[in-house]
């Protein structure tokens, strides 16, 4: 089905007013992003609550969620396209809420990780369905702005997550990092059931590629485990090398399988588009850098400057607060100018923030003069880059491929997030942290930011630009 053929059908089934649809879909997306940044704030409280668990074990509270989320996003996009976006969205929200309650009730790390896996499945179901519902509700000339707004909602969640999460956790305990999802999620479920109309379903029924999912999970999980456990004495260097090599072999097997499978998890034909190909490579690099920076902020505030959890949450908030207004302005300008200049400029600014944190802050807390400028740079940079990556990825896709195409991009970002958390835990996961322990992390973060800018140079989303 072509974009021209499918658009009228989708618009005919859309509600009269597109903005209520946007807000219902965005509430659920907000919760998914909020959950991640809140858990960055909850990492130390979880370490104290489960004192018998190692730091590497606790990292899987973050990474088990992200690995499953990344792997499930792509088949979830296909399910939304073929089984109805409203139906898949509502099922995803309901599962996310039930799993959030189970996370809060967890009495052990194993239970918590299992509940996080279920939560990841719900998040994966609702995310691509949410974006495709929003895209179908708006005309073509407004989609760049709307996608930037949709991405900015995640930025807003990142902004309020650390401060709200740290305050809630400090007063009520870590389970409330999950219970806080229930009121807003219930509102999205109720309003979505009554407000959203079902999309036209594709006559083609997509199979779920179990082999592809298994290979992708093995690839991401094995490489992540090798990185996270690199400083744990119970694993030998040979075992870690075998684990990492197994992950890389699984990644190669995944690509080989996708080339020959009749209904692969990832349709490699999507990557024939040059812009889509480079945007996803840039998303992998930037997703890694983003999670490294966010998690390291809490490690620094609490271990080097010895801030309390609420103080650390408030201290990291000003940067993310700049993401949404920056993304709104960027989305409007990108409609006319394309995304490349914002992606490249934002990546360079993000590299500058890495250099600032590497060279300027010391062991004495001087927040306004030594920390806030770097935080402001990083917030503006994320507002320029992160929503623009999401918008550029779907800018030239036909309507019928919105969910799958956006799911591949979101999955790529989540794989980057897994790698970023794993690298941060490997570099900073030991008990006593010194100022110099952060140097390697900031240097790697800056290199990834520069790589993101380099990969964005071939991106071309200007209106009327020819696409291969």
**Helical region count?**
18
Q: What's the overall geometry?
A: globular
CA distance, first residue to last residue:
19 Å
Order of helices and strands: HHHHHHHHHHHHHHHHHH
The overall pLDDT, averaged over residues, is 82
Helix content: over 70%
Query: Rg from C-alpha positions?
Result: 21 Å
Low-confidence stretches: 1-16
Structural class: mainly alpha
Strand proportion, as a percent range, falls in: under 5%
**Largest sheet entry:** none
What's the count of strands? Answer: 0
Key features?
mainly alpha, 18 helices, 468 residues, disordered N terminus, globular
Explain this structure.
The protein is mainly α and about 475 residues long. The chain contains 18 helices and no strands. It has helices at about 5-10, 20-50, 55-85, 85-105, 110-135, 145-170, 175-180, 180-195, 210-230, 235-260, 275-305, 310-315, 320, 325-335, 340-360, 365-395, 400-430, 440-455. α9 runs antiparallel to α10. The longest helix is centred in the first third of the chain and has 32 residues, at about 20-50. The radius of gyration is 21 Å and the shape is globular. The model is unreliable at about 1-15 (pLDDT under 50).
Summarize the structure.
It is built from 18 helices and no strands. It is an all-alpha fold.
What's the SSE blueprint?
Blueprint (H helix, E strand, L loop, with lengths): L2 H10 L5 H32 L5 H29 L1 H20 L4 H29 L5 H30 L3 H4 L1 H15 L14 H19 L8 H24 L13 H30 L5 H7 L2 H4 L1 H15 L2 H20 L7 H28 L7 H27 L10 H18 L12
Helix pairs in contact: 2-3, 2-5, 2-6, 2-8, 3-4, 3-5, 3-9, 3-17, 4-5, 4-8, 5-17, 6-12, 6-14, 6-16, 9-10, 9-17, 11-12, 11-16, 11-17, 11-18, 14-16, 15-16, 15-18, 16-17
